[in-house]
Specification:
Radius of gyration: 17 Å
GO molecular function, one term: aminopeptidase activity
Number of helices: 7
Structural class: alpha/beta
Helix content: 25-40%
Low-confidence stretches: none
Keywords: Aminopeptidase, Hydrolase, Protease
Pfam families: Peptidase_M55
CATH superfamily of one domain: Dipeptide transport protein
Order of helices and strands: EHHEEEEEHEHEEHEHEEH
CATH topology of one domain: Rossmann fold
EC number: 3.4.11.-
Organism: Kribbella aluminosa
Mean pLDDT: 95
Amino acid sequence: MKVYVSADMEGVTGVVDAEDVQPPGRDYERARVLMTEDVNAAVRGAYAAGATEVLVNDAHGPMRNLLPDLLDPRALLIKGRPKPMGMMEGLTPEYDAVVCIGFHARAGVLGVLSHSFMGHEIEDIWLDDQLTGEIGLLHAAAAAHGVPVALLTGDDTACDEMKAWDAAVATVPVKFAKDRFAAQLVPVTEARAAIETTTADALRSLRTSDPQPGPRTLAVRWQSASVVSHVTAIPGVTRRDDRTVVVEADMLQLYRLFNLFLRVCTAVTSNPPYC
């Protein structure tokens, strides 16, 4: 069994603030350890369930957050950016399951460090007219490969968001949102134990999934009209209004295009995230 892990940071055990997840934040270095240990718990669970390979993709921000010297040596690691598929880099139909560690709720939802890919430049995303964020797009891209999402960890709001997309996905809430930068934390040892055991249980009862081909429609509403003026230069991308673009393609092409949108947005805006 081959297991793919996408590791974000905002939903990691103990993390609540931008200072925790952005270098050179005062608690960023400590949060890197917390992130690595949450991933290690999932890796242990995967191997307990019979995994023969675990590939971890560092999927947060600079994408060089995980500490290789502390990472379980059985895990392979993709680190750094840019990556054409961003948070999904390295996933292929050869994998049997996706595990999502440290995820957060979409923009506009009252979850810990909630946003969609960028701190505030993206106001809303729709996939086939359904509001989504990082969780829904990742789930759809995995489904396009025919790879089921087995588990997600994060705050309770992120877990609820995943359940709304796919009730069969196991979830582990490692904190309970009190506001966007505040949470009631699950004790660290308890959270890691839950990640390990739930990962193992989810992979032992893994369902199969057939690839889901066909065109889908992605719409993105940006804070800045400047972004729209640039990304509409990409063939196939049209303007719905001054701040919203629409594109239709198969899901994997949409996911890759969306990552291109993010690089364009980064180039034309200079505002820090979490404003």
